[in-house]
Structure formats: C-alpha cells, structure tokens
Structure prediction request, 238 residues.
Amino acid sequence: MSTIKSSAENLTLNADGANNDVIIQSNGSTLVTVDGANGRVGIGGSPTNKLHIRNDGTTQRGDLRLGDAGGTTYWDIGRDNASTGDFTIFNQTDEKLRILSSGGLTFNGDTAAANALDDYEEGNWTPASTAFTIGSIQSAKYTKIGRQVTVQVYIEITNNSGNANGVVISGLPFNVANAGWSTGAVNMSDNNTVVDNLHVRAFSNSGDINVKKNNDTTMVGTEIDAGHFIFTVTYFTA
Prediction:
C-alpha cells in the first residue's frame, strides 16, 4: 500500500512495491514524477536523467529561475523552445548568453550564427626556416579566438647560418585565410643587417610568414643570420 507518513521532522511519500513511481498531479495532470525504478526526478514529464526538467512548449526564457526572495531579481536558464533548441541565460528580461544548438556562443540577444564565438585555443607551435638555422626556440606560442590567431615567436639563429634564400618562417598553427594578409613588428639582434621598415607578413592562403624590408622587399638569410629574432603577428584563418 502506498502511504503518506509524517513525523515531528519528516514527511514521507512512499510508493509501496518495487519500482513504483511517486507522482504529483494537479487536476489529473502529472506535474512531478519520481521514477522509482531508476531513481530519477522529472518535472513536466517522465524523466530520462537524474533530474529532468521538460520545457512546456512555449517558454522562451528558460526552464529554471534563480532569484531573490522578492522575485524581482532573477536569472532564467534553459532551452529556448522558440528557436532550434538553443540554450539561453537571461537576466530578468535581457538575454545575456546563448549557446547555439549548431555550436558557438552569442551575447546580449544576438542569435546570428555568423557572429557566434565558436572556438578558443592556445598552445605552442614550431617555427621553421630554410633561409637560416634556428639554433633554439625560446618561445613560440599562439592564441586562437574564433577566426583570429595571434602568434608570438622568440628564436635564436645560429651564427653565420644564413643563405641566399628569401626568409620565410613556416609552420603556423593555422593557415592564413585567402587574401588574409597581416603584418607584425619585429625585433632582432643588432649584429644583423640594419634595414628600414622591418616587418613580418602573414602570407595569404598559407602557413608561412615572410620577412620584409624597405619597399616590400623580401629579406634573405644572409641579412638575418645571428642572434635573436622576435615577432608577434595577428591574422585571420579560414
């Protein structure tokens, strides 16, 4: 027999018999189900997880509300039934964050997939060159936010190792987008050739960095063949 038992401290609802559910209804409609067989709780329908809150089919501002005692300040969290199943977080009536079902984050009411932040990554990479010998890599790091990639490099070049090849530093962690030219500043040891307008350029549709001088002239290895070579450049990937 199912029972409701009260004591000085507890109220116990018991569905007698193995695997029977505890069900709370209003006017014959089920509001809460405690799945006796699997130890699950469902609000708005039968549960398939430990706690399962089912959307009512019309809610657009979340299934769970966290608020103050007066109910005037609150956050709504849950699945946006009016969309394709996005997850949303609202502060009162203002949308602050959306996780698109297709992937990516949008902010402050923006729902456009094109504007979604869909990637963040950071790590190390290994620069290489055929114009001189890289004696050591002191640092080579990258950070990728969406399509934007920033790389930082500090290498030591073996003395007198440069040749007549144009200086290309290869091995970027992500290829540069087509027509995605970008430039960055350089610092190098003072025992290298002194030039004007020294800079690095992310080469379009490749994984390479070119080293340029003067009026867009590519430097050669004999001009950079000793000491340190440091640069940072930000570019866009496809």
In short: The chain has no helices and 21 strands.
